[in-house]
Amino acid sequence: MQPQVISKLFEKKEEQINKEVKRLFNKAKEIAKKEMNLFKFELLFASSIPNKKLDSITSSIRDDRDKAWTKSLKIANGDFEKAMEIYEKVAEEIA
């Protein structure tokens, strides 16, 4: 192969890698934003509900999330990334 062809192949691969890194970064950023909003909600929620009731609700939410994650992982055949995409839809079904 000529050096120009090799150089073009490297440039193309670098571009593909950069696109994938950007996609993953944006996905991580979106997940972090959702988690932060959930955290804010939980703080407000916790301050407005009596402890006994809060414990019951928290336990129920945890169980629902566990069920949604287990179902998502099963649908995705153990593929973590696919399960992350499926989780949001499954969580809505369970809720």
In short:
With 95 residues, the chain is mostly helical.
Question: Can you characterise this structure?
Answer:
The protein is mostly helical and 95 residues long. It folds into two domains: 1-48; 50-95, no CATH class. It contains three helices and no strands. α2 (51-75) crosses α3 (80-94). The chain is elongated. The termini are far apart. The mean pLDDT is 87.
Q: How many domains make up the coordinates?
A: 2
Largest sheet: none
Number of strands: 0
| Secondary-structure element string | HHH
Described by the principal axes of the CA atoms, the overall outline is elongated
Specify the structural class: mainly alpha
How many angstroms separate the termini? 58 Å
> Roughly what percent helix?
over 70%
- Rg, Å, rounded: 21 Å
Average pLDDT taken over every residue:
87
Low-confidence blocks of residues: none
- Number of helices, where a helix is a run of at least 4 consecutive DSSP H or I residues: 3
Residue fraction in strands: under 5%
Which tags fit this structure?
95 residues, 0% strand, mainly alpha, 2 domains
